[in-house]
Design goal:
The structure holds 2 protein chains of 2 kinds. By secondary structure, chain A is α/β, with parallel strands linked by helices. Helices cover 39% and strands 28% of the residues of chain A. Chain A has a 6-stranded mixed β-sheet, sandwiched between helices. Chain A is globular. Classes of the chains: A alpha/beta, B mainly beta.
C-alpha cells in the first residue's frame, strides 16, 4: 500500500468523509473513467487508480490502517509536523565488512498546518557590567526599545539587568504601558562585573510567574563577558528551564565571552547562541530572534534513535537552520525548535554491520515534538528496513545529501583546526584553515574566507588565533547551514 | 575498506566524504585538475591585452549562444544569461557550472571546476578565463586570466585540451 499517495484526493473526498460518501464518489468516478464509458475522461490508468483507492478506503479496517500509517509519516489530516527521511542508498551490498549509510531528515510544518501566533512571554536579561559601557550598552538599549515596540498587546515582557547582582527593571507584565517600559530601559547604566547566574535566575523567575501552557516563554541573554565560578550552576538552571518548556537564547557581543559555555547554555534549553561582532548588529539580531519566536511551530523536538544490533550511530549533525554537532543522550537527540519557514535538517552518519543477503531492520526513528498551538505532542515514526543484495542497483546519491555533507565538512574542518591548535599541532591547524579558506572562496564566501586566511597566517607565523577570528569562523561556518540546500 | 585517493585515509565502503580532507569519494576523488604538460598546449599569447570597457548593462535582449563541443561531438544551447560559467560540476564544493563539461571528458582534458566565463554585454559576447589550472585559449592564443576577450561566431575556445566551437546563428 502506497502511503505517500493521497487516496482521498484521488477520490475527491475529504479525509473525514463517511463510508457512504466514499462509496458514492467512487461510483461516479469509476463510471467516468471506465475505458468503455465513451466519455473523454476514459482512461484505464485512472480507472485503476480509483479502484485501488476504493479497495483501501472502502474497507473500514484497511482505511484505519492507512490513516494511522499516514499520521505516523506526518501526512495525516491532523498532522502538524511532517518529515522526509532520505537515504544515501536505497539498497546496500551484502558484504563482509562494515559500511556507511547516511540518513537525511527534513522536518517541517505539515502542508495544511498554519501557525497561529501564540502570545510571547519574553524576558530580556541585559549584562550591564563595566565592559558594556559606551557603544555596546547604547546599542543594546536601542535594540530593547525596538523589542518593546515590536511586541504585541497579548505578549508579556520582563526586563532584568545584571552585573554582580541582578535588578528587576520591569517585572514580567503585559505591555499596557509601553512608555514605562521604554523609561526602564533608558535607566540602565554600566557598572560592575559579570555574574550571569544572577541575571539568569532573576529572569527565569519572572518567566515562571506568568508562564502559561499556551504561550511561548523565552529568555534572551545579552552579554559581552565571561562569568566566573557559576557556569555549572547556570547550566543546571538552563536544563531545568528546558524541562519547564522555557527556552533560552544567548547573544554574545564582542570577543570576550565564552562561546562553549553560551552554546551549551542555550542548547540545554532548546535555544540558540549568536555571535555579534559589531554592536550595530545587535538590533537586527535581537529582532530576528523575537520574530522567530513568534513563528515558533514546535519545540522540544526529540529524535529517538532505536538501532537494532545491525547498525549504530557514528555522528549526528543538525544541518539547518544552523549547523551543530548533536550528541545523543539516552538514545535521543535534542533538536530544539521548529519555526515556520525554516525547516530543520538533521544528518545521521550510521555504520551498518556485515549482514547476509535479505531484508534487515536497521533502526526505528521516532520524532516527538510539542506543538504549542495544539497543546499536545506530535509523534512520527519511521522504520528503516534495508534490502541487502549481492549486486545492488547503484543509485546516484541524492544531491541534498551530498550538498549537506559539503557544508558540514567545512564546519567539521574548523572543529578539527581548533583541536589541532589545542594539542599543539600548529602545522596541521594552518593546513586545515587554508583548506577551509579555499572551500569558502569556492562557495563565494569571500569575507569569511579572507578572515580564515588571516588566521591561518597568524598560526603560520607562530602566533595565536584571535578571539574575533575564532568566533567569526565558528559562527560563520555554522550559519552556512542557512544558505540554500 | 576504501582509500581516499587524495590523502590516503581509509574509510568504510559507502563513505561519501573524506573526513580528513573533504574530498568527495564516489567520483574517485580526483576533483583537482592536474596541470597538463605545457608542450601539449598552444604557446602563443592573445594579442589583445586590453580589457574591454563594459558598456551599459542591458538585461533585455540577451541572446542564447550555441556551442559545439568538438571532442565529444555534443551541441549545446547555452542559456541566455549575462554570465555563463564553464567548468566541471562539484556538488561537494558548491560549484554548479552552467555548462558542465564532466561528461565530455573534462577532467582528463584538464578542465578546471571553475574554468572560464562567457559574458554577454551590450549585445556582444566575451570570454574570460577565471584562473583555470590549464588556461583558456581563443583561436590557439592563450588568454590572460580575468580579462574578457571578444568572442565571435566560428571562434574556437580551448579549455585545457578540450575544444569548443561557437556555432554561427
Amino acid at each position: 500500500m502506497e502511503i505517500e499517495k493521497d487516496l482521498y484526493a484521488l477520490l475527491g473526498v475529504s479525509p473525514d468523509a463517511t463510508q457512504e460518501e466514499i462509496k458514492r464518489a467512487y461510483r461516479t468516478l469509476a463510471r467516468q473513467y471506465h475505458p468503455d464509458s465513451g466519455t473523454e475522461m476514459a482512461s484505464a490508468e485512472r480507472f485503476q487508480a480509483v479502484q485501488e483507492a476504493y479497495r483501501v478506503l472502502g474497507d473500514p479496517v484497511r482505511r484505519r490502517a492507512y490513516d494511522r500509517r499516514r499520521a505516523e509519516r506526518g501526512l495525516g489530516i491532523r498532522s502538524m509536523v511532517a518529515w522526509d527521511v532520505m537515504l544515501s542508498q536505497d539498497e546496500l551490498p551484502a558484504i563482509a565488512e562494515e559500511q556507511m549509510l547516511y540518513l537525511l531528515i527534513d522536518i517541517r510544518p505539515a502542508g495544511l498546518a498554519r501557525a497561529r501566533r501564540l502570545p510571547l512571554n519574553l524576558c530580556l536579561v541585559i549584562d550591564r557590567s563595566t565592559s558594556m559601557q559606551g557603544d555596546r550598552l547604547d546599542y543594546v538599549k536601542a535594540a530593547a526599545h525596538q523589542v518593546i515596540d515590536d511586541l504585541e498587546d497579548q505578549d508579556t515582557l520582563g526586563i532584568i539587568s545584571f552585573s554582580d547582582r541582578a535588578e528587576i527593571l520591569m517585572p514580567s507584565q503585559r505591555l499596557e504601558d509601553r512608555a514605562r517600559a521604554h523609561a526602564r530601559v533608558s535607566s540602565i547604566w554600566a557598572s560592575g562585573g559579570t555574574e550571569i547566574l544572577q541575571g539568569l535566575k532573576a529572569g527565569l523567575e519572572q518567566l515562571r510567574r506568568v508562564n502559561r501552557e499556551d504561550s511561548i516563554s523565552h529568555l534572551i541573554l545579552l552579554t559581552d563577558g565571561r562569568t566566573y565560578g557559576d557556569e555549572d550552576e547556570c547550566i543546571v538552571e538552563a536544563r531545568r528551564a528546558g524541562l519547564e518548556r522555557i527556552g533560552i537564547s544567548a547573544l554574545g557581543i564582542g570577543e570576550d565571552w565564552n562561546d562553549a559555555f553560551l552554546d551549551d547554555l542555550a542548547h540545554q534549553a532548546g535555544g540558540t547562541c549568536a555571535y555579534i561582532s559589531y554592536p550595530q548588529q545587535i538590533r537586527d539580531v535581537l529582532r530576528e530572534q523575537v520574530r522567530g519566536l513568534g513563528s515558533l511551530f514546535a519545540r522540544n523536538m526529540r529524535l529517538m534513535l532505536r538501532f537494532t544490533d545491525k547498525a549504530w550511530l557514528e555522528t549526528a549533525f543538525r544541518a539547518a537552520p544552523y549547523i551543530e554537532r548533536l550528541i545523543p543522550k539516552e538514545g535521543a537527540l535534542d533538536i530544539g525548535m521548529l519555526q515556520a519557514g525554516s525547516p530543520v535538517r538533521v544528518l545521521l552518519e550510521t555504520v551498518v554491520a556485515p549482514v547476509p543477503v535479505g531484508q534487515h531492520r536497521l533502526l526505528q526513528l521516532e520524532l516527538t515534538a510539542d506543538v504549542p498551538a495544539l497543546g499536545r505532542q506530535e509523534r512520527l515514526l519511521f522504520d528503516l528496513d534495508m534490502d541487502f543484495r549481492k549486486e545492488p542497483a547503484q543509485q546516484p546519491v541524492p544531491a541534498a545529501i551530498v550538498n549537506t555533507l559539503g557544508r558540514l565538512s567545512i564546519f567539521r574542518m574548523q572543529e578539527q583546526a581548533w583541536q589541532a591548535l589545542e594539542s599543539g599541532e600548529r602545522e596541521e591547524a594552518r593546513r586545515r584553515l587554508e583548506t577551509i579558506a579555499t572551500r569558502l572562496l569556492d562557495m563565494g564566501e569571500k569575507e569569511l574566507a579572507h578572515m580564515t586566511l588571516l588566521e591561518a597566517g597568524r598560526v603560520a607565523q607562530g602566533g595565536q588565533v584571535s578571539e574575533k577570528g575564532h568566533k567569526t569562523i565558528k559562527y560563520g561556518t555554522r550559519s552556512l547551514g542557512l544558505k540554500g540546500g | 575498506m576504501i582509500e581516499c585517493p587524495s590523502c590516503g585515509k581509509k574509510h568504510r565502503p559507502g563513505t561519501l566524504l573524506c573526513t580528513e580532507c573533504g574530498v568527495y569519494l564516489p567520483t574517485g576523488g580526483a576533483l583537482r585538475t592536474e596541470p597538463l604538460p605545457t608542450d601539449e598546449l598552444p604557446k602563443s599569447r592573445a594579442t589583445s591585452w586590453e580589457a574591454v570597457a563594459p558598456e551599459e548593462e542591458r538585461v533585455e535582449g540577451l541572446r542564447p549562444l550555441r556551442v559545439h563541443i568538438l571532442d565529444s561531438d555534443r551541441r549545446v544551447q547555452l542559456p541566455a544569461m549575462p554570465e555563463i560559467l564553464l567548468g566541471r560540476l562539484d556538488t561537494a564544493h558548491g560549484i554548479f557550472p552552467d555548462l558542465d563539461l564532466t561528461a565530455d571528458g573534462g577532467l582528463e582534458m584538464g578542465v578546471s571546476r571553475r574554468h572560464a566565463k562567457i559574458i554577454q554585454r551590450g549585445g556582444e559576447f566575451f570570454i574570460e578565463d577565471v584562473g583555470s589550472a590549464n588556461g583558456t585559449f581563443l583561436n590557439e592564443q592563450r588568454l590572460t586570466p580575468y580579462l574578457p576577450y571578444p568572442l565571435h561566431e566560428g571562434d574556437e575556445i580551448q579549455m585545457g585540451r578540450l575544444r569548443v566551437r561557437i556555432i554561427p546563428e
